[in-house]
Amino acid sequence: MVDDYERITTHETTTERPVAPRRATVVEQPVESDTVVEREHVDSGPSAMTVLYRVVGLVFGLIQAVIVLRIVFLLLVANRDNGLVNAILAISEPLVEPFRGMFRLDRVSAHSGSVLDVAAVVALIGWTLIEMLVLAVIRLGSRNEHVVA
Asked: Which domain holds residue 25?
């Protein structure tokens, strides 16, 4: 989105020179024109639609980051007694839960304790599709604006 605009003002000064008669024909001299273009750059800040677009992108980006961390922590058998690991797993659980049970296979476990949380992978795809839908609706709401992230 273009957040600022340029106002272009054109001043045109026209001066006419007297026409000097020539032998048998009269030829008019072309009119001389001086054009001055002034550009004023005004920064009015981002529009409300731009701010909304960015906030929605941020929220969904945080959701996706938490789910990716969940997938990585479970794959690498992270220590659940660690506060950060425990917090990420607790925060991501409600985000993954709606997508659990969509397929017969929700988890793939290895003998080492590594787990591929298939439901989390599906949730990551699902939240990304939801984000795309919400951002498309926001773009529809901004008729005269060009929203670019």
From this structure: 4-43
Which DSSP category does 23 fall into? Answer: S
pLDDT in tens, 129-142: 999 999 999 988 77
Q: Is residue 70 part of a domain?
A: yes
AA letter at 145: E
The answer to whether residue 53 is domain-embedded is yes
Q: Are strands 107-109 and 32-43 parallel, antiparallel or unpaired?
A: unpaired
Number of Cβ within 10 Å of residue 99's Cβ equals: 20
Give the pLDDT confidence score for residue 93 in this predicted structure: 96
Could you list the beta-strand ranges (E) of 28-97. 32-43
- Angle at 57 (CA atoms; ends 55, 62), nearest 5 degrees: 95
